[in-house]
Automatic annotation (TrEMBL):
Keywords: Cell shape, Cell wall biogenesis/degradation, Peptidoglycan synthesis, Transferase. This is L,D-TPase catalytic domain-containing protein. The keyword Transferase applies. The active site is at H163, C180. Pfam families: PG_binding_1, YkuD. Residues 93-205 form the L,D-TPase catalytic domain.
């Protein structure tokens, strides 16, 4: 297992690293920089080469030092922990969206007002990264391409939008969007939709 991989085994790895107090974020199944750093710390403390990736020796040591994760540990009901905001999020009204922690933080003048879990597009339909603006909003939108409901849509980049996804609510990270930023908490997104104005900033970053 190494940086950039995604699997259920990585979800288990992250849950075990969390038991060992080496990770604080909820398991996502995606091997990013936080997982790499946690594995490197574990390896350094156990006399293994600190590669940051998991070979058989490292996996056996992690298994020996932790217990088999419960379903709640693998898929905790709590929201993902928010990353340190990108510097571009620190001024004005911003939807600050981290691909690493899979979170959206609604920020005003550098203060986090609310946060929610998000998921992104697949490899074939990736969510664009960069700095954008909310171009338009639609409370009851249906995709003109895929003909699926996209409630509380806030469009920021040529058809890509932040919107509620019933599939994300039901299946979690087992699925992916077609490039949009999916939110699974309808209540939180409804409140955010009422606050966000056309022209507000959107930052999508790793």
């Amino acid at each position: 297992m190494a940086n950039g991989d995604e699997s259920d085994q990585i979800r288990e790895l992250q849950a075990r690293l969390r038991q060992l107090k080496l990770m604080s974020v909820a398991p996502t199944g995606f091997y990013g920089s936080k997982t790499t750093a946690a594995v490197r710390t574990f390896q350094s403390g156990h006399g293994l080469p600190a590669t940051g990736s998991v070979d058989e020796t490292t996996w056996k040591k992690i298994e020996g030092a932790s217990k088999k994760p419960t379903e709640d540990e693998l898929r905790p009901p709590t929201t993902n922990e928010v990353d340190a905001p990108d510097p571009r999020c620190m001024h004005g009204r911003v939807m600050c969206i981290s691909k690493e922690s899979r979170t959206l933080a609604w920020m005003i003048d550098g203060k986090i007002v609310s946060t929610m879990d998000v998921r992104f597009g697949s490899e074939n339909t990736p969510t664009r990264e960069g700095e954008f603006k909310v171009e338009w909003k639609a409370k009851d939108w249906v995709s003109t391409i895929y003909h699926t409901p996209m409630p509380y849509s806030m469009f920021f980049s040529e058809g890509q939008a932040v919107h509620y996804s019933s599939d994300f609510a039901a299946r979690g990270y087992a699925g992916a969007s077609h490039g949009c930023v999916n939110v699974r908490d309808k209540g939180k997104l409804s409140s955010l939709f009422d606050q966000v104005q056309v022209g507000d900033k959107v930052v999508v970053y790793w």
